[in-house]
Amino acid sequence: MENIVYVVFRRMRQPLLTLLLAYSISMLGLVLIPGQDDAGQPWHMDFFHAFYFVSFTSTTIGFGEIPYPFTDAQRMWVIFTIYATVISWIYAIGTLLALIQGEAFQNALTVGRFARRIRKLTDPFILVAGYGSIGRELVMALTERQQHVVVLDSDVQRINVMKLQNLREDVPGFCGDAKNPDNLTRAGLTHPQCAAVVALTDSNAINLKVAITSKLLRPNLTVVSRADSTEVEKNMGSFGTDYIVDPFETFAMHLSIALQSPGLHLLGEWLGGNAHDPLAEPIYPPQQGKWVLCGYGRFGKAVYERLTKEGMDVVVIEATPNKTGTPQAGVVIGKGTEAATLMEANIDNAVGIVAGTDRDVDNLSIIMTARELNPDLFVILRQNQRTNMTIVKAVHANMVMHPSQIIANKIRLLLATPMLQEFMSLAKGEEDDWACELVSRLIAISSEEVPDVWEMTVDEIHAEAVYSALTTLGKVVTIGDLERNPRERKRRLPVIPLLMNHRGSLILLPRKDQTVSARDKILWCGRYSVQSKMTWTLQHPVALEYVLQGKTEPRNWLFRRLTRQ
């Protein structure tokens, strides 16, 4: 509001002074020029009547000469007054209209409306800085889970596109440079309901500035940032950025898991996918043999390191080794789109190929040429642009690395279900047979769709009935009790407890007889409608009593008396 008032008075200062001067001179002339009353005696108009007469004269209303007919001298002065005040009003109104239509005034109005909207937020929200391809993926994923989001981006076109998208939740968007701490503050950084800040701009420097600003202004706030260089990752980690997401390292880790334990990789794909999506098919990358890697940038280096650690023989094809560097085993110079280059890399004896350049056209050409020379290749494709999704699907690659989707999905899991990361870390220590058995259990409850994964905290907000039963009534509640259907307790809900934080200890796949304590956290997965059914048991004492005992006691005096009779 202060900005709007400042802009108005700065632009309207000259027109208002002109209008004030015209009124003052006109009133002074009417007061000084003598008139005549009905008896022909001289009289002088006072300042009040002069202001009254100039007011209706300047607005062209024209009530007439007051209180007596004017003399010729007065009428001459009134002619001057009419032209002076009317022109002054036209000047002032024209300036005001130009001000209202101006960019500065509109920006001030936009900032004011946005600030009021942010102040009125009462639910926890996530501040996303940057609405490019990654930000768009993340916002869509978060709003699908009924999480509130605020977006800050320097491109007004992106903000306008966001407003036109069919998002499940209303997302406030503000156009401003994320490097400016004032813009971050306007977007809700210091708001008490701000739960996390995510830096997803296209610039590492801006992401670094957002992370530093967030940690300085809100030291305890969760900060997640995208980083595309090792130096930036180290810098962000030095001042306490909670999560630093690198899409290339993330995909390389997924590839390593797929090589070591295909069942665990499939488990991660299912649990980390979007609800209602069809279940992904298992993949089995060749664990022995020669691989051909096209492109030795950051993505190529990450994949090369993982493959060599697994004992693979990797041949690198790179067009500009003087810029990217070369591995110790050497490099084949070229793009990989030519058959001669692939033959030099011994593609006919390879078991897999990685098309990892930063151009989708080259990657598609590499795969098509390589398959003509060796149709049995295991294909990994890097997709850089989301608009190429149709032709990428037509290639039927075994694995596709889309940086935007990988970053958005990982951040969604970090913010929505952080216990899932702990579960996957513990699951890496299990055998592949363990993962395959859990995959079979997921198939039985998922109905061929990606299961819903959620966290539950046993407290007075998220599980009021259970919390009261444990702390006040001293009842015993187990995992198996929570799995019962609140409408028919003999039936089990299609749900699996994945991880339980029981009094500070992590329990992987807790058993049905595992007791539940206050403040425990449980990670569940199940069908999409299960969470609402379980919430009925967690929040309603009558439903919990039925689940625990198979019957319910009357809650008021009349029904208790009738029941005893």
- End-to-end Cα distance: 69 Å
| Average of pLDDT | 89
- Tell the overall outline: flat
Strand order in space, largest sheet: 5-4-3-6-7-8
The percent range for strand residues is 5-15%
CATH architecture assignment of the domain at 106-245? 3-Layer(aba) Sandwich
The Rg value, from CA coordinates, equals 36 Å
Helical fraction: 40-55%
Question: What would you give as the CATH superfamily of the domain at 106-245?
Answer: NAD(P)-binding Rossmann-like Domain
Helix segment count? 24
Secondary structural class: alpha/beta
Number of beta-strand segments: 18
Q: What top-tier CATH class of the domain at 106-245 fits best?
A: Alpha Beta
Poorly predicted residue ranges: none
User: Biggest sheet, in brief?
Assistant: 6 strands, parallel
CATH topology of the domain at 106-245: Rossmann fold
What can you see in these coordinates?
- This protein has a six-stranded parallel β-sheet with strand order 5-4-3-6-7-8, with helices on both faces. It has a six-stranded parallel β-sheet with strand order 11-10-9-12-13-14, sandwiched between helices.
- A hairpin with a 2-residue loop joins strand 16 and strand 17 (505-508).
- The two termini are 69 Å apart.
- With 565 residues, it is α/β, with parallel strands linked by helices.
- Helix content is 50%, strand content 15%.
- The mean pLDDT is 89.
